[in-house]
Amino acid sequence: MKKILILVFLATFAITEAQGLITNVSNRNTTSLNGVWNYIVDPYETGYYSFHHDEYDKQKKPSNAAFFNNYHAVNKQELVEYDFDKSPQINIPGDWNSQVPELKFYEGNVWFRKSFDYDLKASKRLFIYLGAINYKADVYLNGKKLGTHEGGFTPFNYEITAIVKPKDNYLVIKADNTRHKEDVPTINTDWWNYGGITRDILLIEENESFVEDYNIQLKKGNQNLISGFIKINNFNSSQDQAIISIPELKINYKLKIGTDGIGNFEIPVKKISYWSPENPKLYEVTIDFKEQKLRDAIGFRTIETQEDKILLNGKPIFLRGISIHEENAKGGRAHTAEDALRLLNWAKELGCNYVRLAHYPHNENIIRLADQLGLMVWEEIPVYWTVEFENNKTYQNAENQLTAAITRDKNRASIIIWSMANETPVSDARNTFIKNLVAHTKSIDNSRLVSAALLTRHVNGVGMIDDEIGKSLDIIAFNQYLGWYGGNLENAEKAFWETPYNKPVIVSEFGGGAKQGLHGEKNERWTEEYQEYLYIQNLKMIEKIPHLSGLSPWILVDFRSPKRLLPGIQDGYNRKGLISNEGFKKKAFFVMKEWYEKKGKE
Ligand code: GCB
């Protein structure tokens, strides 16, 4: 009886509430639903609305015409106007734009279906984990709605214990990448709006109560204290202890879990090998809770600022960075460990110790790889250009995406900076919006630095890095495009910059476009020589920027953007890459590499 009650409760819960994010999924007991799925392109949302535009999923007993019912006619006479079995197939994860030529420019609704069997033992619980779906997802299992999620780059999960059957489950997802002004990002971005299920879909099997999430990092500003929390899902106090062990540090710590399912801890440590680019040491960490043994590989480091310096493990560092978009070799959304390796190996070859993962949270593979390779990371949410700063729903959406990103990645030593926004226009509403995001970030993770890529003003020939929001940030970062969108490259050395802030300054973007293989004079736009000269001149200027603590030129690889239309040159690509989308290095790559080599020796 108790079991039935629990199941009923869970079923209701699953349908009505957003659920706590399960973290560290790669080390859990999972079954992948990746692979070939059937899909139906549905521009009019015929599978979602009746002809009088009533939402099927709000009906008491949704019509068989609702695509999430995955219905099949039971006799030859019955009218059914869709059929997943006879619909085309697509690889999941994978965006539809790069997989299906007719869908290259498609923005709208697509339905996806995957069938599966699952033998769930009586004492176990099952969750579905969705790594990322762009942009809005309605998720249904066996005709029942699990929930709706907004935001194209963050994971979410639903419990399906009460719904899953041993045979013939059908998971149906409606993905909608229509752009709206009030969304995050808004309608205008300089990247491709890849639609669909772009990251892993997993089933996670857990015990009745289990470790859902945890934070295990050095306490802010303290190199000898590991602190954090463990959060138990469905905690019942009959066993209230978890054990955190880090054998290499001789830690075997018994932690009491509170009645709220959370246990907070502080564990003193002495001899610790700190994580850094030169020493990307990860310790094997195990959390034992009842029969659960959850492993992770965690690095320990401190990151802080002192006046205009960034201190890693107490010592000043200079961020030799590069900006990166999440695209793979074929020009689609990247998601695999191989995609990550390709991008980060190039960053390493360039001489980087740091990457700016622009302009949204990238997949977990690349962050974990950055941990392993010793690359520090700037992680960002897509508060880009002109989102609706006055709109509370927009704010809540941005905050939700930020929370999910921090929840997923807070145990990764590589992440040193959370970025709130990129090139947002100054206004009171925008200042409040970003200040609130900063306060929220600090309330859930005060151990890292907070920044945003800002714009500057020019006053009497002087570049002013004085955006008011800088008061709330740990690092002042700004984008500038001398020699591309304006300004004279010849006089770059004479350009002068000022800032009222005694804080570290990062040039979060600079650059210019070049078509790889196109050669000419250094004053001829789009040639590799122009881009090379632009880098040479910009670097002369950048060196003189007060409080300079790092840079992340724009960008590692050419990437697809519907805004870049010049035939023969851009052809739908932003050409500011140091490497072409085909993987060939341009001349400017070597300018930057040489500069970083020198900088690395200072
Ligand atoms: C920027 C944006 C970036 C663009 C870039 C460009 O300032 O932050 O997203 O792609 O400029 O190429 O214009």
Automatic annotation (TrEMBL):
GO terms for molecular function: beta-glucuronidase activity; carbohydrate binding. Keywords: Glycosidase, Hydrolase, Signal. This is Beta-glucuronidase. The keyword Signal applies. Residues 304-534 form the Glycoside hydrolase family 2 catalytic domain. Residues 1-20 form the signal peptide. Its EC number is 3.2.1.31. SUPFAM superfamilies: (Trans)glycosidases, beta-Galactosidase/glucuronidase domain, Galactose-binding domain-like. GO terms for biological process: carbohydrate metabolic process; glucuronoside catabolic process. It is an enzyme of class 3 (hydrolase). Pfam families: Glyco_hydro_2, Glyco_hydro_2_C, Glyco_hydro_2_N. InterPro entries: Beta-gal/glucu_dom_sf, Galactose-bd-like_sf, GH, Glyco_hydro_2, Glyco_hydro_2_AS, Glyco_hydro_2_cat, Glyco_hydro_2_N, Ig-like_fold. Coiled coil: none annotated. Belongs to the glycosyl hydrolase 2 family. Residues 256-301 form the Glycoside hydrolase family 2 immunoglobulin-like beta-sandwich domain. Residues 81-205 form the Glycosyl hydrolases family 2 sugar binding domain.
